[in-house]
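Teaching note: in complex prediction, the entire set of molecules is handled at once rather than each chain in isolation. The prompt given to students was simply: 'Predict the structure of this complex.' The entities are:
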Amino acid sequence: MPLSLYNTLTRKKEEFQPLHPPQVGVYLCGPTVYSEAHLGNARGPVVFDVLTRYLRYREYRVRYVRNITDVGHLESDADTGEDKMAKAARAARVEPMQVAQDFTNRYRQHMLALGCLPPDIEPQASGHIIEQIQMIEEIISNGLAYEVNGSVYFDVPHYNDEQQRYGKLSNRSIEDQLAGTRANLEGQSEKRSPLDFALWKKASPEHIMRWPSPFGEAPGEGFPGWHLECSAMSRKYLGVLSDIHGGGLDLMFPHHECEIAQSQGSHAHTDEARFWMHHNLITVNGTKMSKSLGNFILLGDLFRGPTGGLAQGYSPMVVRFFLLQAHYRSPVDVTDDALRAAGKGYRKLMNGLRLLDKLVASAGEAAGSPTAADQLLALADKPASFLDDDLNTPRALAALFDLLKRFNTLATTPAALAEVGAAALTAAAASYRTMVQDVLGLQDEPRANAEQLLNLTLSFYSEAKADKAYDKVDLIRAALKDQGIVIKDTKAGVEWAYSEE
RNA sequence: GGUGACGUGACCGAGUGGCUAGGUAGAGGUCUGCAAAACCUCCUACGGCGGUUCGAAUCCGCCCGUCACCUCCA
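The expected output is the structure of the full assembly:
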């Protein structure tokens, strides 16, 4: 069965075929690292992690690019000249790049904890100023951008007339947008049209993050516009036309719309990517989680808990499972009830994982009947087939629970196990394991506390010793020694230490 | 105002013109020293009103409600 994905550009599901099989180029718009990531920021990476894992499972050779935007986007009004990064740096009295590095480090830790494999390339906007400037020069030479006072703006109306419809991704007409922006024209006097967006901004004196600028009459300094880095870096690492480009629904306009305009307006003359994918947002009490609304739940806090109205912490894998239980194009509301339910479901799936080896072993050499074997194999094939349908992770999980139920039954019914046979069971078990761990990226998180287990063992040790049951005492000593732990009987009681051997 | 999404059982959350997803919670049962796990059974819902259809929760229309984007945002 072919993989189909919903393409925002065409507003329908389309069969996915890479441009240059078996290579697949995937780009995800990454974080702006001026603050710690919240749960909402995690959805894209988790969704795209599953996407890239699944593409690899289907034996494509994936190049997955997820950028770090460390060039501060402007805080609000462009004319104040202050950007997010600079503001955060000023507040902490450190170098802006220090802010960026700090949050980048934390972001990577959190993504790793959530089971997201590191991207193949993680380019930073600040490291691609040259590429961005080049792209601007191309757009200027194509007559689609103009320079004013050292800043460069994209000429949206001209682009719209000359080439493609600006708004084709978000399905807006240029007239509608003009109607919507008429109210807030102030502070945009440099722009010819309120729809125009900045490709390059001249740095005001107080603007900290700045780079030498080729634009304007006197040599000056400036910084790239908000949408340019993704276009430039996608092109550098995935070519003028990549296979898949994605991000949150809220990036569709203006960010992705502008990216398409930039790529069309440059010498690339493409939509930048063939498939544009947008995941839905995470809400709290039905309202979007966002930095500006202040209703966000930071990932670090979420893992530790309690925080932001949640009564407890939830482990990264539970959070991942929680996110995957909803389809990526549906909104997800965060509540304790939902997270707790997800936690139990996750645990169930993991306990299934632990059952598999024993189950396969107990099947022995049983030949089995073709009918029973086929039934099990059909069940085992379902999860992947649901992922083929626009990455339907909730259905894939449902199919895995169905398969797990069958495994559990087989584990307690030897006759049925023999009926299925060793070959089918081994294949189905492998399929379950691959799907859960490698494709959905759900790993078992041991909950047991080793130290507490050790203390329990030591209490048995003490008991055995008091009973002079030296065979048990020796057994416990030997078992712990295998773990590199030695028991020390002291006057104060039983203690332990790691063996120095 | 423009654009788009959505309203499913106690909760979360899939889905399709007819064949009761799945998870969680609840009830009963099997099993069990107790318990847990597991399995079996039950709880059968699709905002409202019309329309199309042999048949709609699924298609169409209207209404009600919620949300998002149009300004930085995953």
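Point out the following to students. Residues 75-81, 182-187 of chain A have pLDDT under 50 and may be disordered. Residues 4 and 15 of chain A are 4 Å apart (CA to CA).
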